[in-house]
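Dear colleagues,

As part of the handover before I leave the project, I'm documenting each prediction I ran so the next person doesn't have to rerun anything. This entry is a single chain, and its sequence is reproduced below.
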Amino acid sequence: MSYAVFDIETRIHKGLVKAVYASREEISEEEAYERTRVQLLEQHGSDFFPPPFHVPIVILVGNVTSDWELTGVEEVGGEEAGEEAIVRAFWERVEQFRGTLVSFNGRSFDLPVLELQALRYGCRAPRYFNERYGHRHRYSEQGHYDLYDFLSNFGMTRLRGGFDLLARLIGLPGKGEIAGSDVQGLWEAGRRQDIARYCRRDVIQTYFLFLRMELMRGRLDAERYEQVLAKADAYRQELLDG
């Protein structure tokens, strides 16, 4: 079975923020967004908006063979695709894909965001949404292997430090200069390529974390693990140069 390691980066739909939280007020979308952001921070200690307000601006996928080799990392829809086109391309791809999706916390964020965008744009994905033990089945890894879900024992424990901590734990460089909280500002500054590079780094590091977990679980033996690592050396070097 092949694997698709994926990650998304998003912007906030400020028009929706205004429509939901300040529809009758004579304030701008930016003012509504900033006020709501501050309220979230005061009430919850974080200014992270709920999934319905997130719009995917970049989706990257690492293509992994059934014997764990990373053969490429690509942008879904291509660099020039608009936001709706990216979402539609993702769902068309998932409907045709017969392997396992691999993510880090994709069950809590990436896929809920993409599902809501499918609702927004009227995307059709009948196999994904209706298959009984498919991608949405939480306790099966056949359709979707969420590395965070597994390592946190399906929410029984919280891994403070998250992806950056776990990446560094196994000798990877981690997040680097850009963090997820920077993406909104980068997008508004027109720096989409920087966002795509950041997302690509996350996909590559998710792949290496996936390999280590497969080794830990005994599904990948030590000899094959070293072979696959050697074949992925260019990707590891990319992380170190990056």
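The CA atoms of residues 51 and 113 lie 5 Å apart. Residues 61-241 form a domain with the Nucleotidyltransferase; domain 5 fold (CATH 3.30.420).

All the best with the project,
I.
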